[in-house]
Fold this sequence. Notes:
Strands 1, 2, 3, 4, 5, 6, 7 and 8 form an eight-stranded mixed sheet that branches. The chain has a single domain (4-138), classed as Alpha-Beta Complex (Aldehyde Oxidoreductase, domain 3), CATH 3.90.1170.40. It is built from three helices and eight strands. The chain is elongated, with a radius of gyration of 16 Å. α2 (56-73) runs antiparallel to α3. Helix content is 34%, strand content 40%. The protein has helices spanning 11-21, 56-73, 105-122, and strands at residues 4-6, 29-36, 41-42, 45-54, 77-90, 94-102, 125-131, 136-138. By secondary structure, the chain is an alpha+beta fold.
Amino acid sequence: MNYLISGPVSGSDVTDILDKINGNTDAGGLSIFLGQVRADKVDGKMVIAIEYSAYEDMVKSEADNIIKSILEEFVDVESIDIIHSTGTVKAGEISLLVSVSAGHRKHAIEACSRTVEMIKERLPVWKKEVYEDNTHTWI
């Protein structure tokens, strides 16, 4: 699976995930997390975008490991999908989609939350905040 896309996550990306899961009679719960770029104010400057870069070969390996870990921790989980943006994503656009289906809603919600935390900790994706005055900061 390719976990990275260029630019923001689109509505059709979300629809594709829903279409993939639709009809799975073993899953009673689906939890979706959408991470959106905020227009934060940093040192008096507004964030207008984030530029994401990634170590692509390692992203696949780490994402596979995250999914394996979640499937071992939550035996009720049926499927996990991860889509992370690379390149420029403007404030207000989506940069991360995580979808987890499970037999029960509680497991879907808990596994989705845990997946997001693991992505933040382990996925080799870096962020450069771009400000309204075209300066930037790596975070």
